[in-house]
Each structure stands twice: as structure tokens, then as C-alpha cells.
Amino acid sequence: MTDAADLRRRTAGLLAAHPPATTERLEFLRARFDAGLAWVHFPEGLGGLDAPRSLQAVVDAELEAAGAPGNDPGRIGIGLGMAAPTILRYGTDEQKQRLLRPLWTGEEVWCQLFSEPGAGSDLAALATRAVRADGGDWIVDGQKVWTSSAHLARWAILIARTDPGLPKHRGISYFVCDMTDPGVEVRPLRQITGEAEFNEVFLTGVRIPDTQRLGEVGEGWKVARTTLMNERVAIGGARIPREGGMIGVAAADWRARPELRTHGLHQRLLKLWVEAEVARLTGERLRQQLTKGQPGPEGSGMKLAFARLAQEISGWEVEFLAEDGLTYDDWTLRRPDGVDFTGREAGYRYLRAKGNSIEGGTSEVLLNIVAERVLGLPPEPRTDKDVAWKDLPR
Amino acid sequence: MNDGTPLTGTPAADPDLLYSEDEDALRAAVRSLLADRGDPATVLAGLESDVAYDTGLWRALATEIGAAGLLVPEKLGGAGASAREAAVVLEEVGRSVAPVPYLTSAVIAVTALLGCDHAQEEVAAPLAALAGGRTVGVLAVPLPTAPGGLPEPSVRAGADGALTGRVTSVADAAGAELLLVRAQGPDGPALYAVEASADGVRTDAVTPLDLTRPLGHVILDGARGRLLATGDRARTAVEQALLTGAGLLASEQLGVAEWCLTETVRHTAERTQFGRPVGSFQALKHRMAALWLEVASARAAARHAADALAAGSPDAPVAVAVAQAYCAPVAVRAAEECIQLHGGIGMTWEHPAHLFLKRAKSDEIALGAPGRHREALAGLVALDAP
């Protein structure tokens, strides 16, 4: 069994063989992956050591102290948080060997081809078709939307309909799509903030080999649920300090601009400060439960709390800044590398936060999930359950 | 709290926000006792009697389970546990709106005595009596008194130790044998112990909003007190008692909110209208899911306060202010939602929902309303008012 002492020894060994000061960044990251210190809870040979997930913090702290280069988790967040756990669970040995190492080192960026113009919250209504061609390859046609990082991505996780004659959840299959293939067209989708963080992706006659399927034909919804569950864990699981994130920016504004203070804004700031601190503690409690192997249902709610708080705090901030709140830093169309909720200035934060209650599952969908899976309340009656997808109104 | 010491607002290194196995076992014992002898229907039936609290239930909780002495060290006659365990008892007390003087006697009065010099027999003797559950004691302050902002005592002590004055809205005063009274003496503020049965002591019962936590005005007219502490020691002992009371009240509020949510979910999943369970309508589900998130968050806040108090952390004032500012409104909202989502049934005397609303609303005012705690926080974390 790998323990903390063992991990410290292995980390010291890695640092001795590849001193960060004299080792090229990518070379160091590859060596770290090969030493099993990338994500210690992954299997040996795939960047891990089958160690408890909680021990990753030991490795990270030692490497940070030694000034070792990191792998830019913001830029490769979709790969780390969504693609990797899904590949680990459903991929073949060949897929794992080929895909996980460059995913982790950041040599290959991933994106997620799930949402469509007609299938957002009702994701299983998707219409992108994958039809089997002679020789077993799949030919994919359709349109995806809200695709972060598609303009940077080498690979995508993709869900497509392989049998329109089945009810909507049963006729879906899950693929790995090569974004450099002919027929894949990425167009920037300019957003409310002025920048194009997302894309539209048009798939026209894209040929995907059957070896790039994850899970069985028609079992894609089950595979996608692994991805989505990991997405929400990734959103809720981070450890933040008191006054971390959006509330820290608001509190710093308050301290720096005494001339703008009013009693009404003070009351609201204190209320938001309390709510941010309690959200932090709730996340911390969830983390402690996970460390002890007693996962609690708090995770289902963390994204809801995060979205509501980010929106209220950023709205407060624009109002507090008064004249400065009337201005915006830059409306130029830009293509950022990753998502930065607290970066740039107040107006940007306010506008970007509007997406927090939509992306990764709307707050309304998450409330349904909490109500039905955590509280055990009865589901709404459904009219689409046993109807073939092709017969559903669209 | 505002004693001039600047606080950085840095949380304790690693607060433990979970429940230990011992705490789980304690909870199971308390819950089982309260389910047998203090379920809401029994509570309701007992309320219109003239008894100040359920003495049988109190004795069982205090002595059979030993809950009254949790905060008291073993050498002083207690169980040598901490605020973390007392918080678990209060969660269960909240969940059953049990009419027992746990918060007032076993938490607030005990903490005040612990802040005095317990090498002295005048302190050690009442402390052991409270810890053993033989005596009920209360700190005579108005229930809304917040930590950090003690007003001048409303009672004067003569040179002969005779106390005169009036303290309004003291929780559980009617059932208490021992009153801990703040008084302005010839040499400044001091804390006295007064027997409720002594000459010159009268308690006028007030009709309370929360029937499960009786209120009384305490009137002292030349009553004899035994001096417990003076000056800073007296003030600090009372401050710490109020801080501990406010911090652990958050756990009672959590218990109130939990009962309300659980019962609302149960009711709406069973109650059929328009041909389906009302709990299947999204408009209602979303309200309950939002409430669940608030209850889960209240648990983290309440555990944090209990853990900071147990550890004697310098962060405790922040943790307590956060817990009170957050948990008090959650309990009220849970009780209000419980009544609304029960429909007409929620408006009846027979259904216990009103007991929880009255407790929640009274708890919101007790030991500092949320606004007071947010104000305290402004000073503690350097978010100054205009």
C-alpha cells in the first residue's frame, strides 16, 4: 500500500533525476507521469500508483515547494475533469495507453461535444447522427454548441445518436473524436462578454473508427453520466481559503474604496460574505467526507450555491463601483485559453457569472436532481420515456 | 467580542466538520430518548399545563444520558466532553422542540460558572449541581442579548450583597432553582449566584411566542446573592457564556430546520392533489431542494462554530457570528416553508409545525439577531461600515 512517506520518497526521487531548474517543462511533466505521480489514484502505468486520492496533496505540496512546473489545469480542465475519468472507466487498454499521458501533460487539449442547439438541459434529445459505414467506421453528421476549448482541442468526447428507433436515452453511443479529422469545423461563438470562449462545432461526414468508441453501442448515455458526474464533482470539490474567489474581490474593493460605501451596500456585502464563508465550509465538509470515504450528498448542491453566489456578488460589485461600474474593459472579440471567472474587471465578472447557472447543468436541472435523488421526491410524469426518439416532437 | 484585540479573520488550521463515532453514539441515545418521551405530540399535550418544563424528560436527558455535564471537566463532576458533543444534543433538542432547559442551564449557565474561579467552593458546588442535572440554573440576561455587546447590568448590589433590580425576558427562569445575576456593585460589575426560592426573588411569567421555551421577568428586591466573580473575570465569564450559547444555538436551529424539511418532504410525497403527489410538481420540488441546500450548509456552519468553541480557537467569534447569521434565518425559512407546503394542515394546532415555527422565530432573536451578528462580523473581518 502506497502511503504518504512512500510518496514523499518517490517525489524526491523524481526531483533528483529531473531537477526542475535544468529540466525542460514537458520533459519534467512526462517524467512525473511515468513515475506515477501525476494523479496518484490512477492505476500504475497510467500516471498513478493506485494510491488514495487524498494523498495527491502530499505530492503536489512537495513539487510546488521544489518549484516544479505544473500542467496548466485550467487549460486542460475538460480533459482532466471529464475525459480522463471516463476513459479510465470505459476505455480499452489501447485507448488508455494512447490518450491519458498527453492529456495529462497538456500536449493534447480536450473538448466536449455534448450540447446541441436543440439539446441543452434535455441533453438526451441530441440529434447528431452516427451511422455505421462499410468496414465498421462511423460517419457522424450534426451540430454541437457551447464547446469550450474546441479551437485548441486535439480530441473531443462526443455523444451521437446511433439508433433513432429507440427511446432517446437508449439510442446514444459515446465516441472519441479526432478534432483534426476532415469534416470537423470549429466556429467561434461570440458571447455576452464580447469574447469567444465557446464555439459551435459542425460535423459533416466525419469518419470515426469503431476503435474510438467508449462503452457499448447504445450505452452512450450511461457513459455520459460518468462524465457529467465528474464534471459536477470537479466544480464543487476545490478547496478555497476564506475570502477566496469572487467574495475576496468584492471585499478588497470595499476596503480600497471607502468613499463609495453606503449602509445598504454594507448590509448586503456582509450577508454575501457570510454566505460565501458558509459555502466554503460546506465544500470543506464535503472534502472531509470524501477523504474519510463517506461521500455525502452535499456535492449535488455545491454548484447551485456557487452559481447563485457568483451572480449576486458580481452584481453587487458593479453596483458598488458606481461610475466605474458603468464602464467595461474591452469588447474586442478574444479567444481565451481557459475560463477565468474572477479575472478581468467587474463588468466582465458580472456578465460571465450569468453562465454559472446554465453551464454544466442548469440550476433548475440540478434542483430536480437534488429533489429526486437526495430527497427522494417523486419524478414529474414524463411523456417521452418509452417513445422512439424519431417520433418525439422537436 | 469587541475587546479591542484585532482579529485577522483567519480560520483555524483544520476544523473538523464531521461527527465522530462517539458523537454519533450520543446522538443515537438522545434521539431515542426524545422519540420515546418527547415526540412533538407529547410536547404539544404538555404545553398547556402550568409546568415550566418537562421535568421527567429533563431528568432523563440530564442524568440518565449525562448530557447536563458534557461541558464540565470530570474533576468538577461532569463528563469532560466539549462543545462538539453539546452541539449534537442541541441538534436533537431542536429536532424535537423538546421543552427542556438544556441550552440555558447545561450550556450557558455552566459556561458562565466555568469562567469563574472554580477552585472556590461557591463556584464548584453549583457547577457540580448543574453538571449532575440535580439543579437547573440560568444566566439572568434578556434572551436577545448578543455576545460582544453587554449592556450595563440592570441590577444593583449594595455593600451588604443585597441585590435589587429587574431582568426582563430571561429564558427558563420560571423552572430554575439557581439564578446567575450580573449586578453593578460598589466596586464595579460582578456576578452573583441567587437561589430562586430566596426572600426578595420573584419571577413573573411572560406569555412567550415560543411555548416550548418559557420566559420570565426576574425581580430582585434586596435578595441575598453569593459573589461568584468580579470585574473583568465576571464580564469575560458572561461573554464566553453568551458566545458559547450563540454558537451552539446554531445546532439547535439546524435540528429545527432538519425536522421541518424531513416532514415536508414526507408529507408532499404522500399527499395527492390534481391526480399526483404534490411533491412531484417542480414548483414544490425546487423549493424543497433549495431548502435542503441551505440545511446542508447550515450543518457545515454549525459544526464549524462547535468545533471552534471546543478548540478554544481565536477564530471562534467569527465562526459563531457566521453560524448565527446563517443558521437563524435557515431555521425560520424551513419552518415557514413547512407550514406553507403542508397547506391548511400546517395552520392547525394539532399539527406540530407551529411549534417549530415558534421555536425558530424565537431562536432567531435569541442571543443576537442575524443583523447583530453581521455587525459584529464587520469588525472582526475588517469590513468597516461607511
What's a quick, concise take on this entry?
Chain A has helices at 4-17, 25-34, 56-65, 77-90, 93-105, 220-236, 246-256, 263-291, 298-321, 346-353, 363-374; strands spanning 110-113, 129-132, 138-144, 155-161, 172-178, 184-189, 198-208, 213-214. By secondary structure, chain A is an alpha+beta fold.
What can you tell me about this protein's structure?
The complex is a heterodimer of chains A (394) and B (386). Chain A is of the alpha+beta class. Chain A is built from eleven helices and eight strands. Chain A has helices spanning 4-17, 25-34, 56-65, 77-90, 93-105, 220-236, 246-256, 263-291, 298-321, 346-353, 363-374; strands spanning 110-113, 129-132, 138-144, 155-161, 172-178, 184-189, 198-208, 213-214. In chain A, the strands form two sheets. In chain A, strands 1-4-5-8 form a four-stranded mixed β-sheet. Chain A has a four-stranded antiparallel β-sheet with strand order 2-3-7-6, with no helix packed on it. The N and C termini of chain A lie far apart (54 Å). The model of chain A has no long low-confidence stretch (mean pLDDT 93). Chain B has 386 residues and is α+β, with helices and mostly antiparallel strands. Chain B has helices spanning 21-37, 40-47, 55-64, 83-95, 102-114, 121-131, 231-270, 282-310, 316-342, 353-365, 370-380; strands spanning 137-140, 155-157, 162-171, 178-185, 188-195, 201-206, 215-224, 226-230, 272-273, 276-277. Mean pLDDT of chain B is 94; it is low at 1-8.
